[in-house]
Design brief:
single chain; 3 domains; binds zinc ion; alpha/beta; Ubiquitin-like (UB roll); 16% strand; four-stranded parallel beta sheet
């Protein structure tokens, strides 16, 4: 194998020289080698920012295995180009392959450009236990965000498969699970920045519909007669408010308290979208309403 590999390596030019030491090591041990270049934000997963890597292997593994062995979850990959042509995850890696790996939003620069997977259907999410604050913000924007603080990794993977949900997590290892098709490793640690990141990554700004989902349980919120919820209201809430909404799943009652406009402005600040109000403009007595009657109920 070494006798065949040496002259071909010389034709690799500067790229081969950059990987020369690892290449020689692999040849000494009789292994195959392939050359991987990771682009754009995929480099977030690589050690010391090294984005050109030599991968030594035996046999002809499916290309998903080396991509993940080098640290990049398969869910983060949108395009793989091998020796100038797009391939799928079923491609078997060959000795001396030149591999370019791209995330969504990047162009692979070849024709035809065939992604490794079809885009997700819809924009329903399931969130890992470390993203509770992001879940509340997504729900506030009216987006479908399934979350519980006792979800196991298995729960998240099963919900993603059963309901075709996109997994959001801060644990990159979770995204290595084979059953997860669509997922994203949330980079930011601040919940407001996380929301912006997810909206941008999945192009969700046009889907923002504030006050249509229950912040507590993710159920849909619909209007309800005041008489239907009268027994659930505090005396001052009964007095000052006439328009009510209720979660269809957990029954939580919402109304337009003094907190409402604050939340609207916050959504606009976070999403860059001026959301149309679901509820009517505040009445003349709203400003005098007590704070405890405001907001989420
Ligand atoms: Zn609810």
């Amino acid at each position: 194998m070494a006798a065949k590999a040496a002259p071909r390596r010389r034709r690799q030019g500067s790229a081969a020289r950059r990987w020369a030491n690892r290449d020689v090591d692999a040849i000494v041990f009789g292994m195959n080698v392939a050359y991987f270049s990771f682009h754009a934000e995929l480099r977030d997963f690589l050690v010391n920012g090294q984005h050109d890597l030599c991968y030594a292997f035996q046999g002809s593994p499916g290309i998903k295995d080396p991509v993940e062995a080098l640290g990049v979850p398969h869910t983060e990959v949108q395009w793989i180009v091998v020796n100038g042509e797009c391939v799928g995850f079923d491609y078997r890696l060959q000795h001396r392959d030149q591999v370019q790996v791209y995330p969504p939003g990047e162009s692979p620069g070849v024709t035809p450009a065939v992604p490794v997977r079809v885009p997700p259907v819809g924009s329903a999410f399931v969130l890992d236990v470390n993203l509770g604050k992001l879940a509340r913000r997504l729900r506030l924007c009216g987006l479908d965000a399934c979350y519980r603080n006792d979800f196991s990794d298995r729960d998240v993977a099963e919900l993603a498969a059963r309901d075709r949900r996109i997994v959001l997590t801060r644990d990159r290892r979770l995204l290595h699970q084979k059953t997860i098709v669509h997922g994203y490793w949330v980079r930011a640690t601040d919940p407001d920045l996380q929301l912006r990141e997810v909206l941008q990554r999945f192009h969700l700004h046009h889907q923002v519909r504030p006050f249509h989902r229950c912040i507590r349980c993710n159920g849909e919120i619909r209007g309800t007669d005041k008489a239907a919820v009268l027994d659930l209201l505090e005396p001052l809430t009964r007095r000052y408010y006439t328009e009510f909404y209720r979660c269809q799943d957990c029954g939580k009652v919402y109304w337009k308290g003094s907190h409402y406009e604050h939340m609207r402005r916050r959504i606009e600040r976070l999403t860059g979208v001026a959301p149309p109000p679901l509820l009517k403009a505040p009445g003349p007595d709203a400003d005098t309403a007590p704070a405890e009657a405001a907001g989420e109920g």
